[in-house]
Amino acid sequence: KRPQDRIVLADAKAQFAQDVRNYVADDEEAGKESFPASDSPASSNGVPSKPTTVTAPDGSTYEIDHGAVTVAAITSCTNTSNPYVMVAAALVAKKAVEKGLTRKPWV
Fold it and tell me: So what EC number does this one have (predicted)?
């Protein structure tokens, strides 16, 4: 979505599941890729998936999929438009770390 396309936070999960389908092949395409017919389709449980391997500057590799970097994208965008929100995000992150939450290596 574009920044001006507001999504209510309560609807974010459902909206993401709907929008991500614009970036991947649908289940019909996945079914065409499986041969013979006894093979299961490439996509499972209705969730679009297109894993990508990325290499960090230190040489370590990670596999990410749709939605993996959503939070990082939001915070970097916020940085240029509202520094007060960045301070609030930093405080939330600090509390999360204090409670034992860890970030993924690629964020």
Answer: 4.2.1.3
Across the chain, where does the E strand assignment appear? 52-55, 61-64
pTM (predicted TM-score): 0.36
Under a CB-based contact definition with an 8 Å cutoff, are residues 24 and 65 in contact? no
State the Cα–Cα distance between residues 70 and 56, nearest whole angstrom. 18
Round to whole Å and give the CA distance between 24 and 43.
Answer: 10
Asked if 67 and 51 count as a contact pair (C-beta separation under 8 A), the reply is: no
Distance CA 43, CA 29 (A): 9
Residue type, 102: T
